[in-house]
Specification:
Chain B: Keywords: Signal. The complex is a heterodimer of chains A (154) and B (217). By secondary structure, chain A is α+β, with helices and mostly antiparallel strands. Chain A is globular. With 217 residues, chain B is mainly alpha-helical. The N terminus of chain B is likely disordered. Classes of the chains: A alpha+beta (154), B mainly alpha (217).
């Protein structure tokens, strides 16, 4: 076990874990922030998406030893115009069904809009194809991203 | 059953087994030969000295490149030299899952899923995800999939399609580049490229010194 100090959502968390522990489990079990979900554990589903220095990463495929001083943002701490617009549109269109994948979906959708304010359907596919939804809410996810983009246009 | 009949049955069974072994033996022997013969074993590389007997320089160069081609045609190399915009993965070279494309810098489309969304500085076997600091898809002009080894050879020498590398830089890239080197250390569950990077670099260097002729086809 090794002691780490992780900066998650602007707060420092002391976490004592094996260096090979996936960041996902340091966040969930160490920092007790359980909004980030375990889906597949092999970077195939996107449920565990967080930001590392504002870049989306799958927290299941990153060992805690590789995080260093990077700023981690989880669904509990995500903010800014894009995230607010996405969350509002998610509520408006009632996007989630079972909801399990939705924190990862929202993290990826907000990251997309931060880099591409007017995404095409193809842009959405390229940003969101790695976020799997077993309830197949993809049509509503796409509509909500387009809706959030319109909101951000002002 | 009489003792005689039992003996005849035993002899018959033994004879059948002998026939089966006699028929099967050549193929077992053949597989063993292929595995132990570096010339035909795709998992190992013949050393440069194995080609010294080819007196014709052009033929020697082509043979050296053919041997180095065992590495170039390995899925560890080919997967990130796709002909289209999407890399492939695994030994079967299936389309990369999830969908990710080359993008303007070989690291994913702007705003889309990036290589670094999942791939980091090192292999992470706990998640089965490979990694390297230079992880990226090769530029389209360096696409190898669907091409013959001869075509790849010509392409590799073309400075318009090799990142403007002269032969010395090309040899250095093959022999020393850390992302090329990942091919021999791909993490659990992946077949490494044949031989070693050192052997591969020596083959490429010898090919260059022999005039860098390409295999036909």
């Amino acid at each position: 076990m090794t002691a780490y100090r992780l900066n998650i959502n602007g707060q420092s968390h002391a976490i004592d874990v094996d260096p090979g522990t996936p960041l996902l489990w340091a966040i969930r079990d160490g920092a007790k922030l359980t909004g980030t979900k375990y889906g597949c554990g092999v970077a195939q589903c996107g449920a565990c998406t967080v930001y590392l220095d504002n870049q989306p990463v799958r927290s299941c495929s990153l060992p805690v030893s590789a995080v260093g001083d990077s700023q981690i943002t989880t669904i509990e701490g995500v903010g800014g115009r894009e995230a607010a617009a996405v969350q509002a549109e998610w509520v408006k269109l009632d996007v989630p069904q079972c909801g399990y994948c939705q924190s990862g979906q929202i993290m990826s959708a907000a990251a997309l809009l931060a880099r591409n304010p007017k995404p095409s359907d193809r842009d959405i596919d390229l940003a969101m194809a790695g976020n799997i939804c077993r309830c197949a809410t993809y049509v509503r996810i796409r509509a909500a991203i387009h809706g959030a983009a319109k909101t951000l246009e002002g | 059953m009489s003792r005689l009949r039992q003996s005849m049955l035993a002899l018959g069974a033994g004879g059948l087994a002998a026939v089966v072994l006699a028929v099967a033996a050549p193929s077992f022997q053949g597989e063993a030969d292929a595995a132990s013969n570096p010339a035909t074993n795709p998992a190992v590389l013949q050393p440069v000295k194995a080609f010294a007997g080819i007196k014709n320089k052009e033929q020697r160069a082509a043979a050296l490149f053919q041997e180095a081609g065992k590495v170039i045609s390995s899925p560890r190399c080919m997967n990130c030299h796709p002909a289209g915009e999407r890399p492939t993965q695994s030994d079967s070279m299936r389309p990369h899952q999830p969908l990710v494309v080359r993008g303007p810098h070989g690291t994913g489309e702007v705003g889309g899923t990036a290589c670094a969304t999942c791939h980091h500085e090192a292999n992470f076997d706990a998640a089965g995800v490979p990694g390297n600091p230079k992880w990226a898809v090769a530029p389209l002009e360096m696409a190898w999939q669907g091409k013959s080894l001869g075509e790849i050879c010509v392409q590799i020498k073309d400075r318009a399609r090799n990142g403007d590398k002269d032969m010395a830089a090309l040899v250095h890239h093959m022999a020393d580049d850390e992302l090329v080197g990942w091919g021999w250390h791909p993490g659990a569950g992946r077949t490494p490229a044949p031989g070693t990077q050192k052997q591969f670099g020596e083959l490429i260097k010898a090919w260059a010194e022999a005039g860098a002729a390409c295999p036909k086809g």
